[in-house]
Amino acid sequence: MTTSSEPPHGDEPPPPWSQPPPYPQPPHQPRPAGQVLSIIGFVCAAVAVLFIPILFGLAGIVLGIVGHTRGEPLGKWAAVAAGVGMILGFVLGIVVMSSMYA
After folding, report:
1. How is the chain split into domains, by residue range?
2. Tens of pLDDT along 37-66?
3. How many CA atoms lie within 13 A of 48 on its CB side?
4. Cα(19)–Cα(1) distance, rounded to whole angstroms?
């Protein structure tokens, strides 16, 4: 018995262009929740610049982190934006208060 590396005649695989795709692609279905937590986190970041930075900044950070853990791609960026908005809000508040009493 001889062993050859070639397949026996008749057992040749079909050419790749004649094979159907492995699985039919399902239609795109949107995620049920979307990125609601991340969007609210970005809104809190913007509000934190002008109003109560400690409250809205921390709320935006928490919402961004929770959104990130739930798989929202923008969650971590919402948390970063809320932190930056909180810092800017503090700086803006200090500037405004110092100019009022100067």
Report:
1. 35-100
2. 999 999 999 999 999 999 999 999 999 999
3. 28
4. 34
